[in-house]
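User: I've been trying to design a sequence by hand for this structure and keep getting stuck. Would you show me what you'd pick, starting by listing the structure so we're on the same page?

Assistant: Good idea, let's start from the same input. This is the structure you sent:
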């Protein structure tokens, strides 16, 4: 068929223009890859990869990393070097990684999780926390992934980097837990609170999945209040410095209401600091946003810079903020 052949020729022509297709690889690179892929198991420790590389004359970490990143770009392996836990593992079976992550999904059910086995393993309470509170225990992760410590650490780090999991530090470090972003309930009734509001609007109306959930976890980790928060996909209520805070999320915006005047500036400072942390460590500085602060005198919102110039209360007032005032002002000046 002439038309089909024309399409095939066009695809072949476009394919030949791709950078990795035009790259000439040393034969040693391909032999190195073959030996890696022949290794038993879905992943290899980086130290073993180094040993394989040395047999082909690659003796430096830079050389090995260069090859791994190239093969990762081709989709043959998965290699992520953002953190130490990720650098330690080279995935030679990408389908294994997908399967491992799919064990924790928005539609987790009895057949996916294997609840009978979980209960028999003495993890019934852990399962209840997952299904009812979206909290995954470390013990349950180890059971589901059924792997050695380094494998579990790697998978946890992958999910954290992709914002699928966030560390749950409420109540101390005992009994390690993680908030599973996609398992937060859809319809949660938080109820309104009276207070001081500010909004964070993300440019292009885009709020990546997981940013809201990570912000919740990091905000809660700053709280000294052990009372149970109310968490949902689009709204959450919790205590910060023993005062109520409401967070509401739409497609491209988050609205924050702080009940107590005395912590308003501190909470704003905390939220912006957390967003900067997420943007730097996870989003590769791809997030950008605008902050608007409420003027309670006329129920309007003004831009952060204008609010600073006006010394808009309670965000820039001189009272009730304690020692945090100067650090907050310095932070905002640097931010602007």
């Amino acid at each position: 068929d002439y038309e089909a052949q024309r399409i095939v020729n066009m695809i072949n022509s476009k394919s030949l223009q791709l950078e990795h297709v035009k790259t000439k690889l040393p034969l040693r690179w391909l032999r190195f890859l073959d030996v890696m892929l022949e290794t038993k198991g879905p992943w290899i420790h980086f130290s073993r990869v180094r040993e394989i590389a040395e047999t082909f004359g690659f003796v430096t970490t830079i050389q090995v990393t260069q090859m791994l990143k190239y093969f990762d770009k081709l989709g043959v392996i998965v290699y992520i070097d953002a953190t130490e836990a990720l650098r330690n593992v080279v995935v030679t079976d990408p389908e294994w990684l997908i399967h491992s992550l799919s064990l924790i999904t928005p539609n987790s059910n009895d057949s996916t999780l294997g609840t009978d086995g979980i209960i028999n393993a003495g993890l019934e309470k852990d399962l209840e926390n997952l299904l009812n509170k979206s909290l995954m225990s470390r013990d349950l992760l180890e059971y589901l992934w059924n792997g050695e410590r380094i494998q579990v650490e790697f998978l946890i780090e992958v999910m954290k980097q992709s914002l699928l999991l966030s560390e749950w530090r409420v109540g101390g470090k005992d009994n390690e837990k993680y908030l599973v972003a996609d398992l937060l309930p859809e319809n949660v009734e938080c109820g309104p609170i009276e207070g001081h509001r500010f909004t964070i609007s993300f440019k292009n109306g885009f709020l990546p999945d997981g940013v809201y959930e990570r912000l919740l976890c990091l905000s809660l980790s700053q709280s000294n209040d052990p009372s149970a928060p109310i968490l949902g996909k689009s709204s959450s209520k919790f205590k910060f410095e023993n005062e109520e805070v409401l967070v509401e999320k739409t497609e491209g915006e988050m609205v924050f209401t702080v009940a107590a005047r005395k912590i308003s500036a501190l909470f704003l400072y905390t939220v912006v600091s957390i967003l900067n942390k997420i943007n730097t460590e996870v989003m590769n500085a791809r997030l950008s946003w605008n902050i608007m602060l409420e003027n309670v005198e006329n129920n309007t919102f003004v831009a952060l810079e204008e609010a600073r110039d006006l010394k808009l209360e309670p965000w820039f007032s001189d009272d009730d903020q304690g020692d945090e005032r100067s650090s907050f002002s310095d932070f905002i000046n640097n931010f602007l």
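That's my pick for every position. To get oriented when you compare it with your attempt: The radius of gyration is 25 Å. Confidence is low (pLDDT under 50) at residues 1-8, 14-18.
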